[in-house]
Amino acid sequence: MIRLLPLLALPALAACAPATQSPPQTPGEQPAAYMALGTEPGWTLEITPARLNYDGDYGATKIMVPNPGAKPSLNGRTYVSDRLSVVIKAAPCSDGMSDRRFADTVRVVADGKTLNGCGGKILPPDTLAGSSWTFVSIGGVAVAEDRPTSLQFDGARLSGSAGCNRFSGGYSAADGTLTAGPLMATEMACPGPGMTQENAFFKLMAAPVRMTFAEDGTLILTGSEGRTAVLKRAI
């Protein structure tokens, strides 16, 4: 069976989004290290206060050196050591494998081999259309791992599951508010956490919610009473 849900509302996306790092435990929590990545061949770089940790050639090459300290450079900073040098510039960057964009353009020279990639803050998507998300938590409670969740925006429609039933409906964005609905949902009974988290999500979405993004690209929906739903980017 299909049931019709009340008209829902959301805020519009003001501005494009990872890295493969996990979202913070608390929305907006700053990552412990600076992360960068590149493709063809795949590589990652972690910069901590103590070390530069490079993992290149899809994991075949590993370089770990003491952090030499950052030196200011044109629109960014550099790190220089015997085996590893890094140039970070504050310029938007695409990872080349998805539509996610990062705040910085990064060039790494590892044992004489130059590689280009992206790093830093993940920028919000320019539009919701075409993006797909999975839930991290609803109402401050982590979603049940055995209940798949999703939220997709396809053209002028959204669809997904908050842990039990499938829902779908139209949406439009204007003046900082994204209005969704009326939404239709199936009527399956899901005992346990799946139904509980779904009910919490529908309650949150029964009124306009604020949309914000953490630096790792995590999407945070906040209702008027402070309830939240936290999602991470899938596509």
- Could you report the average pLDDT, rounded to the nearest whole number? 83
Query: In percent, how helical is the residue content?
Result: under 10%
Helical run tally: 1
Main sheet: strands, sense, barrel:
12 strands, antiparallel
Could you state the oligomeric state of the chains shown? single chain
User: CATH first level of the largest domain: which class?
Assistant: Mainly Beta
Write the element-wise H/E pattern from the N-terminal end onward.
EEEEEEEEEEEEEEEEEEEHEEE
Radius of gyration, CA atoms, in whole angstroms: 20 Å
Helix/sheet category: mainly beta
- The first-to-last residue Cα distance is 30 Å
Overall shape: it is: elongated
Low-confidence spans: 6-30
Percent of residues in β-strands:
over 45%
CATH architecture tag of the largest domain: Beta Barrel
- Total discrete domains: 2
* CATH topology assignment of the largest domain: Lipocalin
Count of beta strands? 22
What's the helix and strand layout?
Blueprint: E1 2-4, E2 8-10, E3 34-38, E4 43-47, E5 51-56, E6 61-66, E7 71-73, E8 76-80, E9 84-89, E10 93-94, E11 101-110, E12 113-122, E13 132-138, E14 141-142, E15 150-154, E16 157-161, E17 166-174, E18 177-180, E19 184-186, H1 193-204, E20 210-213, E21 219-222, E22 228-233
Antiparallel strand pairs: 1-19, 2-18, 3-4, 3-12, 4-5, 5-6, 7-8, 8-9, 9-11, 10-11, 11-12, 13-14, 13-15, 13-22, 15-16, 16-17, 17-18, 17-19, 20-21, 21-22
